[in-house]
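Narrative of activities, Objective 1.

The group set out to show that a structural description can be obtained from nothing but a protein's sequence at a throughput compatible with the screening campaign. Below is one input-output pair from the validation batch, recorded exactly as produced.
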Amino acid sequence: MAQVTITVSKNGPFRIDDPNGVIQMVDADGNPYDLTGKMVFSLCRCGASANRPFCDGSHKIAFQSPDTAIKIG
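Output recorded for this entry:
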């Protein structure tokens, strides 16, 4: 079974690669999002998407993030 990968895009969304279609995502009230057939999707980090929590490309306005992986431990 291939593993799920979450990629932090520079100045962009979180890209979720779910080759097995096993991720379940729920809202704050526990209601599930319909991810049927979505093996790859992106989650908004900038807050500008009209389709939140999913990215619609609005981050191109001027969103900048300094995120890089840090070694823990």
